[in-house]
From TrEMBL:
InterPro entries noted in UniProt: DUF8176
Compositional bias annotation for Pro residues: 125-137
Organism this protein belongs to: Nocardia otitidiscaviarum
Biased composition, class Acidic residues, residue ranges: 55-64
Chain segments carrying region Disordered: 1-80, 122-148
Lineage of producing organism: Bacteria, Bacillati, Actinomycetota, Actinomycetes, Mycobacteriales
Transmembrane segments: 98-117
DUF8176 domain: residues covered: 146-263
UniProt xrefs under Pfam families: DUF8176
The protein, known as: DUF8176 domain-containing protein
Length: 268
């Protein structure tokens, strides 16, 4: 016979079971983006430039954040991917509109042919043909030059040419020329310092491929303290889209050459 429990006595409770590793602090690592920043950020340059994360700051975070901060191709990769996605969307919309217009034109031609062949026997004059629209005239040379008129002053250098290898503005112009005109990843990376920690060349090639072929560019370079340069790039895509973005580029003289040691996105 089972023993009866006195109702007035409190019921025994089971001990609380804490989940395994309860209390351990395991913050979720941020999701890694493909290439978020160029080489390294500098604390002393403008208030709108982010500092590259110090290794002591991680405290268990995913090391992919450090890799993203060290990647000098990051701003161009992210911006190029965003513009490429927008361009593909517009191209799809244009293609759909063109297909709809072509279908409507085909229906009109078929209807006109049926009317001509099934009409009365009285000869009728053929409808006047619409002359084709003249092709759009190419922009005049002076109009092209006025958009990116080359100029060199102590305060600013503007141009879209191949630049040179003896001055910091010339090397920056050469970098953008290799990116937009030559579309050559090796030529781009040849302008980086040997000790620069960079992503594989395939990442640069992918970012260049994301820029529509035929995109025109205009570069503005302004000096900042300590070998830094504020670089603005204006783009004009073949479909008429325009984009602008800025970077802060650091250069240094190495073995008689001017090389790029850091590139960070300028914010603000």
């Amino acid at each position: 016979m089972s023993e009866r429990r006195d109702p007035s006595m409190p019921r025994a409770t089971m001990p609380a079971l804490s989940p395994e590793n309860a209390g351990a602090d395991h913050p979720a690592s941020p999701e890694a983006a493909p290439w978020s920043r160029w080489l390294e950020t500098d604390d002393g340059v403008r208030g709108d430039v982010r500092r590259a994360p110090d290794p002591d700051d991680y405290d268990g975070e995913d090391l992919s954040s450090d890799l993203r901060a060290e990647d000098p191709m990051a701003p161009l990769v992210e911006e190029a991917r965003r513009r490429s996605l927008a361009t593909r969307r517009r191209q799809r919309m244009i293609m759909r509109s063109a297909l709809a217009a072509a279908a409507l034109a085909l229906v009109t031609v078929v209807a006109a042919g049926a009317w001509l062949f099934t009409g009365n026997e009285t000869p009728t004059a053929a409808p006047p043909s619409t002359p084709p629209e003249p092709p759009a005239a190419a922009p005049a040379a002076d109009a092209t030059d006025s958009w990116c008129q080359p100029s060199v002053t102590p305060e600013r250098v503007v141009g879209a040419g191949a630049g040179d290898a003896t001055t910091a503005p010339g090397v920056i112009l050469r970098l953008e020329y290799a990116w937009y005109v030559q579309r050559d990843p090796a030529a781009v990376r040849a302008l980086l310092a040997p000790d620069a920690r960079v992503a594989p060349e395939s990442a640069t090639r992918e970012a260049i491929a994301a820029v529509p072929a035929g995109t025109r560019h205009c570069v503005t370079v302004s000096p900042l303290p300590a070998g830094r340069w504020l670089v603005g790039v204006d783009e004009r895509h073949p479909d008429g889209e325009q984009a602008s973005w800025q970077q802060i580029v650091t250069t240094a003289h190495r073995d008689g050459r001017v090389l790029i040691t850091a590139i960070v996105a300028a914010e603000g």
